[in-house]
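Entry for the shared binder. Reason: the reviewer on the internal report wants the predicted structure included alongside the sequence.
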Amino acid sequence: MALRSQRQIVEITLMNLRNVASRLAASSVIVVGIAGVVGVLVALLSMAIGFRTALESTGRPDRAVVLRGGSNGELSSGIGTDAAAIVASMEGVAETSAELFTIADVPKRSSGSPANLVVRGVQASAFSIRPELRIVEGRTFATGKRELIAGRGASKEFAGIDLGAHVAFRDSDWTIVGIFESGGTSSESELWTDLPVAQTAFRRAGSISTMRLRLTSTDAAAPLAARIAGDPRLDLQLKTEPEYYATQAEDLTTLITRFGYLVATIMAIGAVFAALNTMYSAVSARTVEIATLRALGFGGTPVVASVMVEALLLGLAGGALGALFSYLVYNGATTSTLGGGFTQVAFAFHVTPQLVAKGVIWSISLGAVGGLLPAIRAARMPITAALRGE
């Protein structure tokens, strides 16, 4: 009995699929609708993954960030020179870079509207602490001069941030003498210059925002953090880079992910109604055909299965189309958005295999929901009334 039912399912399904071409326009409604849902979902989630990857890839467990106690980012942090000297002398610290973190308004290339761009004043040790950073065009800035090096991401996203260009910050003229890359990390969204020059130009003489540390080992982080927290002379906190950047990425990635699912769900409701309407129309057009099959001895289960298989395949086609579109258009595309401290972080969209699989699962689910009720209607259709075309 089971073997007979399986054969009937295969026979009816193949017959339905051969007739899809005659319903191409109606079937395309399902495919395009589901493709839109999957395309939007995958694109937005790839944005969240790209942003998180840009921040998390910046962090190494043998490096740490020292901030003022209670501050949630570099922009709100401040460290005195005496406190910086105490931290630099502590056990577990191999190398330090005192850094000034500030922002400047620079127009974006895409819109021309001003956005916050990080200008970071660093000591020479910042380069040895971050060995992944390398100059790919021009040269590094000279000590004591108003020269900048720009991250590749900042150069792509912001107008006028080009090699050899002159930019004006705080009534002073600066020259961009180099472009650097750092493996896609968040540093590529910044401009770097000599620390004393930045302190003078931004009227922050003797002031630093944070310290970047290279630790003697990854095991040194926890004891060092405890010593800093327990020192009554200090009001500072230490976080390893992975901890710091994970915290910075969490809020925005959560927001983007929730927004992506919300938009996809709203679109999915429309796609399901389109699928229901299309599949009901397909069943109505085949009323006599289905009744004839039932009169010849085909059971209700094969009829349900054949309609469901058609809906699932149309959903799968829509999912594949939407995922392919997102991959071709968005994967590797660069953009920028607000990161921690209300500064722009440039990053690339990442359309991963996991996202594609998630999109396909959504598409198949939408196809199943859209095909279920029409399939049940086809199976329950009275044979005599259906043969009369009612």
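Summary line for the report: Residues 241-285 form the longest helix (45 residues).
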